[in-house]
C-alpha cells in the first residue's frame, strides 16, 4: 500500500530550491553543524538531537548527537519531523503517544514506548524552513520555556550558517564567471582546461607540468625553483585583473579536499553554460 506524502509548506517549490542551493545535499558537511546538535542535547537533556534538511521528497539527516545519522528517509505522512516545517514555532510533545496529532501514527502507536519530542524549524533569511533540529527522549519529557528560547537561538545560528553557505557559493560562482570572461578575452588560444589549471595555480594548488604547457606558452606560468609550475609575473597580473588575488581567495574558508570539491563543482557549472 502506498503511503501518502506529508503536508508541504505553501512555499514548497521555492523552499526546496533554497535547500539545494546550500550545497549541503551534494557534499557531506555535517561537521559544520555537529556542534549545534551537541549543544542542543546538552542544554535540553534530551537523549538525541538531529539536524536535517528537507529536499522535495526526503528528510536528509546532516548531523546528530546521541545517535548515528541515517542518510535519508521519505517525507511521508507519518514522518513527524516533516510537520516541523509547517510552522515558525517549535513543535513540542511531552509524550508523542498522548499527542492528538501523532498518537495514531503506526510508528508511535505500535512502538510501545512513550517518547518526548521537540522539533524546531531552521528558517533562513528568506523565511524558508530549510530543515529542522529535532530532539527525542526515550521517556516522556517536556521542555521548559527557558530551554525553548535557547534552542531557538541555536537554530537561528544554524540558519545563518546555511545562508552563508549559499551566499558564498553564489558569490564565488559569479566571480568565476567574470574571471572566465577576462581569461578568455586575454588568452583566446587557451581552452577551458587551461582556465581550470590557471585557477588552481591562483589557489596555490599543484598541477602537473604537462598541464601547464599552454599556460607557459602564453606567458602565464613558469617553472618554480622546486620544479613545479607557478604563476609568472604576467600570470599574477592577470590574476589581479580577474579579481582572484590571493587575499580575496583566502577569504573562502575551505581547505583540502573540501576546497577541491567546491572548486570542481563551480568549474563544472561554468563549463555547462
Automatic annotation (TrEMBL):
Report if keyword Cell inner membrane is assigned. no
Enzyme nomenclature, EC number: 2.7.3.-
Domain named GAF: residues: 28-172
Q: Which SMART domains match?
A: GAF
Q: Does the keyword Magnesium apply?
A: no
- Signal peptide coordinates: none
Top-level taxon of origin: Bacteria
InterPro entries assigned to the protein according to its UniProt record, in alphabetical order: GAF (IPR003018), GAF-like_dom_sf (IPR029016)
Keywords for this entry? Transferase
User: Which GO molecular function entries does the Swiss-Prot or TrEMBL record give?
Assistant: transferase activity
Protein name listed in UniProt: Diguanylate cyclase/phosphodiesterase
What organism is this sequence from?
Answer: Puniceispirillum marinum (strain IMCC1322)
Amino acid at each position: 500500500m502506498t503511503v501518502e506524502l506529508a503536508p508541504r509548506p505553501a512555499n514548497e517549490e521555492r523552499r526546496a530550491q533554497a535547500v539545494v542551493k546550500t550545497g549541503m545535499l551534494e557534499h557531506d558537511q555535517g561537521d559544520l553543524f555537529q556542534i549545534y546538535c551537541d549543544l542542543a542535547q546538552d542544554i535540553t537533556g534530551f537523549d538525541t538531537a538531529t539536524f536535517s534538511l528537507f529536499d522535495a521528497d526526503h528528510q536528509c539527516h546532516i548531523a546528530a548527537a546521541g545517535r548515528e545519522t541515517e542518510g535519508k528517509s521519505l517525507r511521508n505522512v507519518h514522518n513527524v519531523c516533516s510537520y516541523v516545517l509547517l510552522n515558525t514555532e517549535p513543535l513540542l510533545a511531552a509524550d508523542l503517544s498522548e499527542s492528538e496529532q501523532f498518537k495514531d501514527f503506526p510508528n508511535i502507536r505500535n512502538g510501545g514506548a512513550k517518547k518526548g519530542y521537540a522539533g524546531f524549524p531552521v528558517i533562513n533569511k528568506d523565511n524558508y524552513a530549510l530543515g529542522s533540529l529535532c530532539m527525542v527522549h526515550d521517556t516522556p519529557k517536556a521542555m521548559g520555556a527557558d530551554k525553548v528560547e535557547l534552542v531557538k537561538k541555536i537554530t537561528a545560528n544554524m540558519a545563518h550558517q546555511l545562508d552563508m553557505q549559499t551566499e558564498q557559493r553564489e558569490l564565488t560562482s559569479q566571480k568565476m564567471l567574470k574571471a572566465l570572461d577576462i581569461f578568455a578575452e586575454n588568452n583566446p588560444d587557451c581552452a577551458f582546461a587551461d582556465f581550470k589549471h590557471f585557477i588552481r595555480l591562483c589557489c596555490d594548488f599543484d598541477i602537473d607540468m604537462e598541464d601547464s604547457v599552454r599556460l607557459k606558452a602564453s606567458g602565464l606560468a613558469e617553472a618554480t625553483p622546486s620544479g613545479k609550475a607557478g604563476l609568472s609575473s604576467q600570470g599574477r597580473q592577470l590574476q589581479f585583473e580577474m579579481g582572484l588575488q590571493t587575499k580575496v581567495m583566502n577569504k573562502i574558508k575551505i581547505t583540502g579536499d573540501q576546497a577541491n570539491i567546491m572548486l570542481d563543482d563551480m568549474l563544472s557549472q561554468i563549463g555547462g553554460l
